Amino acid sequence: MRNSLRIIVTMTACMLIYCQVNGGSERLVFVQNEQDGIVRLQSFVHGKIYPEKNIQNYEFALNQSENVQGIFQVDSADPDLRVRFLKRGFLFDSKRECADTNLGSAYSCKIEIPLLEKGRYYLTVYGKTNMNETDFNLFVGIFGKGYVDVEATVDN
Predict the structure, then answer these.
(1) Alpha carbon distance 47, 31 (integer Å)
(2) Fewer CB within a 10 Å sphere, N or C end of the chain?
(3) Could you tell me the CA-to-CA distances from 3 to 9, 10, 16, 24, 139 in Å, in that order?
(4) What is the DSSP string of 7-68?
(5) Rounded (to 5) percent helix, strand, coil in the chain
């Protein structure tokens, strides 16, 4: 019983420390562009990863969603940079890791989700190893012939 309590206390402390070290999430702002009945929402972020904090967190929420898909991509000169996609669920979370593409002098890591549902989503850009300061570009695209309502959108 004492060992179980120790494990729970240790895990709780680690989670609190992890959240404080890695900070909160930055909310993504989307630009909306609808043409010919196709919904297009895009968000671009130019960011940096630092050796002392090799993680950046972003979030967005879909209040309503029907028949739309998503693309989440990070581009960088560093081949170790990744993006992780997480959807919070009532009982279970859904997590996806990106697939690498070498574009010559640049590297790209992309996740494609064929059907985005209503919910809160989190993207984490991170380095696999402690590295030098690295610039990156994060692209988030939501599109389809359906309907989507995203928090914090900017109409064009």
Answers:
(1) 18
(2) N
(3) 10, 10, 20, 31, 45
(4) HHHHHHHHHHHHHHHH--PEEP-EEE--BTTBEEEEEEEEEEEBTTB-EEEEEEEEEEEES-
(5) 15, 55, 30
pLDDT at 29: 93
Residues 21-35 have pLDDT tens digits of 345 789 999 999 888
Residue type at 62 in one-letter notation: L
Q: Scanning the structure block, which residue is given the tokens 């709780």?
A: 12
CATH number of this structure's domain 25-155, picked from the four choices 2.115.10.20, 2.60.120.380, 3.40.640.10, 1.10.10.10: 2.60.120.380
- Nearest C-alpha neighbor of 131 from the set 75, 51, 49: 51
List the structure tokens of 93: 């979370």
